[in-house]
Description:
Helices cover 0% and strands 56% of the residues. By secondary structure, it is mostly beta strands. The protein is globular, with a radius of gyration of 13 Å.
Amino acid sequence: IAQNEQFKVISVTWRPGQKDVLHSHPASAVYYLTDCSLRIYAQDGTSRDAKPTAGMAIVQKPIPAHILENTGASDCRLVMFEPA
Length: 84
């Protein structure tokens, strides 16, 4: 939704049942706009579930390759902030 030479601000929405493709992230920050039910698949085939809530903010180290799936009954929406 915005970008300059330092930052990218990314609006993300996963519909119920939606699963994305294998990808990774640099160090970043995330702000959840809605409650979410997520399953995160690691590249080694393992998975874990997460239930972040609306208003939750996290700052995270780089994330290796993974796939994310919305296992909930409603849209999962967040804003991500990454270096450009």
